[in-house]
Records
---
Amino acid sequence: MPRDMRLRAWKVIRTRTVQHEDKTILAQHLRNQERYFLEMERFAKQAQAYIDEDKASIEAARIQDEYRRRRQAEERALRDKLKDARLEALEKEITLEEAQQFVRENIPHNARSGFREWFKKEYGGDLSCLMAAAKEFIALQGEKPAKDIKDKVIARPFGTDIPIENFNSVHAMMQETGTGNDADARQFRLAVKDQGVAIWPDDDPRKNSQTALDGRRWEVLLPHLRPVDAELDDYVPEKRKGRRAAYGALSRPDQKAFSDSVYDNCYGQGVVTGARSRRRCEAAHLVEHCKDGVDHWSNGLWLSIDIHRLFDANQCAINPETLCVHFTPDVLAEDEDLKGLEGQSIAMTKKPINAAFLWARWEVFTSGD
């Protein structure tokens, strides 16, 4: 907008034009000239203040944004650091577990105390070096001959009534019976140590199971599967004990002792299925308690609960001569998993049961009644 028009619009200046020598001259009649310039100065200062305020706001926003970005970067770095620390700790834990498993599988139990002392001396007990230390220890020790691996065991041919024999080690058992060689003994002892009871050669831990050199299957056990003070009493009471209460039920004060003694005599495993959990098994009378069967280990077997029910229902019986378990055809037809147990010998017991106690049930079973 031209200057004269701006001045007219502001209503602070009166103007008129005159012609002089072919030129238009603007004649200004200023009113309140001082106030005009003061207002202009105030407007300029106010505008500059607004500009300065905007600059300050922009700078503050920039500083705040920079601080936020810096804080986010620090938080990300901290999260990454914590994540890396967790992953490192997890990796160390996995490595330690693998090393411990390696030690359990490759260093014999009777050599581990020596390994621990050597590990503390050579590596200062640094668990991060456990795997390397175990491999070095094994290399230093060399592969011990099987005859030097001492774990006393008891054994007899599986499914027979041959008395059990005591051996100083699995190697001694295999050498004296002629059923295996040094390599067989070294591998099979691992199964015996792990399970407590193992069948040779069925439980050979190698992928390609070996054949027993004598052509027989052997049942091998650790000799201390029960407390050493829990001796089995050979005395057999003449008749069952108990007293009848006023309401007609018969109390059985020896039931727990009977159950514990049968459990000990059967090495804590079901003699048919091999189950070891006490919740899955219970003591079964060979001659029923209601038929004057005695509460004595020689009159009992440790059976899985389902086998015990079949045994009491005469749908399962044990041959007194062979000690092999048999099931009725209808039971085998209904439950095919029992076919794998049909005709198998029961597991070895610490002391032989009284096979004569099996005859009554066997006669009922074979008669089909």
---
Amino acid sequence: MRLFLNCVAISCICVVVAVLFSHAISVGLPTSILSGIGIGFVMAFLLNFFLWRSFQKKLRALDNAILNCIRKGEMPTESYKRDELYGLCKRVCEVLSEFNFEKQKRESSERKLGQFKDILVRLQRVGGDLEALLRQLKWMAGASGCAVLSYDPEGDVFHVRFENGTSCISNGIERGIISDAVWRVFLSRSGPMIIRRGVSDRLSSLPFKAPLPYDLIVIPIRIGNKFYGIVAFTKEEGSFSHDEYEVAVMGAQLLSLVVHSSHLHERLTSTFIDTVAALAEAIDAKDPYTRYHSKRVTEWAVLFGRWLGLQPQQVDNLHVGGLMHDLGKIAVPDEVLRKPQVLSPEEFELIKLHPVKGAEILSRASLPWDVIPIVLHHHERWDGKGYPHGLRGEEIPFLARVVAILDAFDAMISDRAYRPAMPVEEALRRVISDAGKQFDPVLASSFVQFASQNMDVFVGRVERSNL
């Protein structure tokens, strides 16, 4: 304010002085006044300009002095006028405001990055286990419930996995009022949305009119332009905070990658297994007496593995290992495989190479299943008299012991060129008699019990295969 008054006073003085000076040197009064006013304004402008430059220079010096004092933790020793301090304070406030804004942006970015890393680490720990993923996401988002609804266009149903805090429920829901409402919620926009408890305008076009009793976050699962379903979070007590909402969105985006990867993995796995099954059938077809042998061993191994209560990954290993267990026979001459008489010792030595050949073939590929031990050791014996390495007892991998029983059992109940098929009951008695010698005694006993409970599985399929 004082600077402004000083500028006005200087301007007036310049005008008066210029008018008096012009009047003194000029005869015409009007002309002298006009000239004086013009000259006065020019002088006033120049003086005010230099005064303002001087003030700005001094203000910058004061600004730097104060900032240096702040950095050093000292107090300024010079005295300053009130207008100078006012200008400095205003400038300091502006700088602090900009600094706080940038600091908040940086902290927000760092917090989001930290949350993203935390979510990623936690999801990596549980791998592809969807139930564990849902539990982690529910906990991190501060939600009371979390659900994944994936749409199956073939059956026109939603496959729902819901984590409610105590258990994970999985089922299919046909299109109905609620499911259509969910679809309309997320199809109404491409991004996520949060619906607060109570009446919401976003629900006005949906079939249900009652207010929601909880907060609801709905996030679409999209990869590119393809839509897979939605992830939904509910909060029965309190409301979702902004940070919880962002965590839910980030977690759902990562989950969408998991779902997409799962879809790709399922398709690739199905294609691979179909290819392997066709290869196994072609190998079995080299010998008319072993046609569909690998297929039967695989089906029975999967059923027996589930009956034993094995983990899903172990059952998958049995599935692929059963198909591939005779892969090495591709290196055995056809005349040996098709020989109608009993094999000579030399020919039998060639047959005994097929587990090693199969393992060598598989070792060149990177497979997600641990099947090489099955292929390599399914002809080992419990008493150590098997091949190729003469392993004994529990030295033999567990799944190889399972396939060994099923491989031998199928050979017993199938026709061979040198003998007819055994009845199933006789083959089961042979398994019991060879327990502790050829077979794992515990697994042999379990298999006989399993076969006795599922006799139709063996009798019907073998009879059809021997036709």
---
Amino acid sequence: MSLIEVLISVAILATVLTVLAGNVFTLSVVRQVAKEEAIVQEVLTNLIERVQGENLANLGSRNSSQSHLNAWSWHRRVQPRWPETTLGVIPPMTEETPTAPVPAIADDTNVQPFTNYLLPVYDSSVPPRLISPGLLAQRSGIRDLRVYLEYYRQNVILSAMLDATEPHRTWKEITEGTGAYAGRNDLLYPDDLDGDNAMNLAQETNAAVIIRAVVIWTSRDGGIRTRELTLARRQ
């Protein structure tokens, strides 16, 4: 075999190995993305099942007597509309680990920031009480996983959708608070736990409530992905 033939063979082998390495990496990314999607779907399903099984009057409420067990159902908006709350915007549920000591639940206001964790968090009472039951028993392995839960007034939404020529676009504008629905807070329930504008679904004795669960995360492929489920609840 001549030197030229050897060089050609080496070049071909290098090309084949490069292609194989690229395929292996691509397959690995695809597998990781598929795994992420499965976990996110499980989180969404678990959240929706809890929404369906909970007493409607308890959803979104602030109930210290139950060790903040309703914190998972608080109105956590992707696009907050009620910045006047003194507690600040209610953050999404995440897998972040608390960096500050968790106080006893007797200190109600100070416990509040620790109720947005997907993983279990206990307060410093004796014995400790669960203040953030969350939706996961262990870490998901998904980067920047954020879970939101939004509540909309069904009767107002229905009127807007019936008048819409492009329902998909209308729904997008409603959820984002843009376009014709910028500043239309009458479409949704307040996301304020501080009392002045606290959500109280117990008052909705006849009307249905539209509930939208949203999960946003940074995927293994580098993109930002979003998945959501929507349902309606009635007393």
---
Amino acid sequence: MKKILLFLLFPYILSAKNILISDKYNILDEKYLSFENEEDLKRELNKLTLEMLNKGYVSSQITQVNGEICVKPGYINKVILKEANADIKKKLLGLESLEGKILNISDIDKIVSEYERLENNDIKIEIRKTPNKDFYSDIIVNNTVKRKLKFGVVASYTDKFKYNVNLSILQPFYLNDKFSTNFSILNKSKYVGLSYSLPIYSSVIDLSYFYTTQKIKEHGNSTSHEVSLSVSKDLYKDKLKNLSLETSTKLNISKEYVSDIKMKDKIYFDNDVNLEYNNVHVFKNSILNTNLQTKVGLGYMYNKELKTQHFPVTFDVNANFKTKYLDNITQVFASLNNNNDSRYMFSKDINSINDIPLNITDSSYALSTCFTLKYPVTEKDILLQPFVQLAGCVAKGEKKYINLGMGIGIDVRIKDVFAKLKYSIDKEKNKSLGIQIGINK
């Protein structure tokens, strides 16, 4: 193509030193070809072609049309999905909107990011020139979907046993969707949760239902029903800079009854903005995985029974660092105007096997950190990972709260089966022995 263009431009070489390039779509920064001879012209064409590629215009070209040197954009003709429910998924993911646009590598990133939401997608993308249609290309997405099932059981013991059973199915309808459910028995309370999420036009819609029942000595049984609808969307995503910005909006309706008498009727409306940074640093003999998250939330809480309203504000910073032998999780939390509502408070439960080994009461302000020292041993398909945890927290609710804790355990993984055993104790002598068993298939 360059040789043909040089031939077409040859008459200009003897008569001009600057050629204006017609660029109606502002693909190039430089609008002139400046040269003294044919070698200069080759160099300038290479530079401008490289500029287009660096900007992601992988199918656009510099060419000659009717004696004029111009940038000819390359367009997207069709986005073709080769998988189950391709037509429905194409509409749900909003990929039809790419057709007719100038092709940029960011469009490919958009497609990849939609499929990366779930781990059981295996995609290969091909850009193929459209037959008999100059400057048009088809984007062909070949995706192999393996319906994935995750099942887990968590049991822990303090004064009594506590259980949690959870199940999730990735892509039950092959639409990049997810269904999950969990059931818990915690002392005198029982909890059931159901959730279904579906991506629609670069957003993810999640519909959830929660049911909780608890025995109260003096008043009988307390039950609550909760329905939640949330919409999350990526506002910004840059893989090269490892940055992403996401917003999430949630509407939540909660009703609580004691002995069939309605006690609480609340409406929650929350909007969160989350900035996340991920990176992998490679040193001589080690790899450091870094994950930083900053979340700011503004909520609206209305109690229909008391006819009161509040506007809670939350600020949350999470810093996770992982190496082969040492992990650290540090969290800073602050909450204002929360009316002592637990959903806007900071809390950690020693009885949850995935939490740090501390029992922390609900607090408006908190700083917590946990170090995990581990020693992974791999033999064929078996991973054994004994670990020791040390944790500390400074928090403030009605009064200042300081706690220290430690945990010891082992993590075992055999192909798709995993198990975890952990014993925890904190400064206040809260103890917990927990076991977790699951299948990730």
